[in-house]
Amino acid sequence: MYSHQDQLAAATHVHLERVLTLANAAITSTESLAALNLNAGQTVLADMVSNMKVLAGAKDFPEFIVLHAAMLGPAVEKSIDYSRSGYELTLQANEEAARLIKIRFAEVGQKVVDSLTKTAQNASVGSLVVGAPGKSVSEQSGKAARPLVDIAETSAAAAKKPARTPKPKARKMA
After folding, report:
1. CA-CA-CA-CA torsion for 117, 1, 8, 96, nearest 10 degrees?
2. Is residue 174 part of a domain?
3. What Rg, from alpha-carbon coordinates, does the chain have?
4. Buried b or exposed e, range 50-85, using 16+ CB within 10 angstroms
5. Domain tally, the chain
6. What confidence tens digit (pLDDT) does each residue in 12-54 have?
């Protein structure tokens, strides 16, 4: 039979493992976002240099305007791609966190059910009513984790949809 100190030590060890797992997931997500930001920064700087060289080669102002307008389309596309990539990385992090939390809720719910079952087995005949709430506790822990999973799934579905680009409105000349 385990002593209370052994049980506490085992529970603390399991809890620390879960916290470290969640922390590692957060660190991995942060590294991915940092890499995305560094790559985006490098791309922006390289594009700025090449665009400045092209614009410096313009012979007159109308040519400058045409060149500048031609550069805007790719810049907007890169900006949209960057935003979508950042959003997808954030969604992946949320999905991983939701998955880990759901697992933890299920474990806690199962431990509560096991504990109530042991209590019911060791209790006198009149106190067997204790076993019934254990099943609802397990169900409730699963229900508590479900909204987190739903949010992550909804966000993932939204990220996969193509971005809408607004159509330019015709300007009225006064």
Report:
1. -60
2. no
3. 28
4. ebeeeeeeeeeeeeeeeeeeebeeeeeeeeeebeeb
5. 1
6. 888 899 889 989 999 999 999 999 999 999 999 999 999 999 9
**Does 168 reside within a domain?**
no
Is-contact 128 64, C-beta < 8 A?
no
66 assigned to some structural domain: yes
Residue 80 lies in a domain: yes
Q: In terms of Cα–Cα distance, which of 92, 65, 97 is closest to 159?
A: 92
Which structural domain range is residue 23 located in?
A: 14-120+131-160
Structure tokens at 67: 């060149």
Long-range contacts for 74-80 (Cβ within 8 Å, ≥24 apart)? 74/47, 75/47, 78/43, 78/47, 80/163, 80/165
Instruction: Name the DSSP class of 166.
Output: P
Tens of pLDDT along 63-121? 999 999 999 999 999 999 999 999 999 999 999 988 888 888 888 888 888 887 877 77
Q: Count Cβ atoms below 10 Å from residue 141 Cβ, excluding itself.
A: 21
> Which has more confidence, 82 or 10?
82
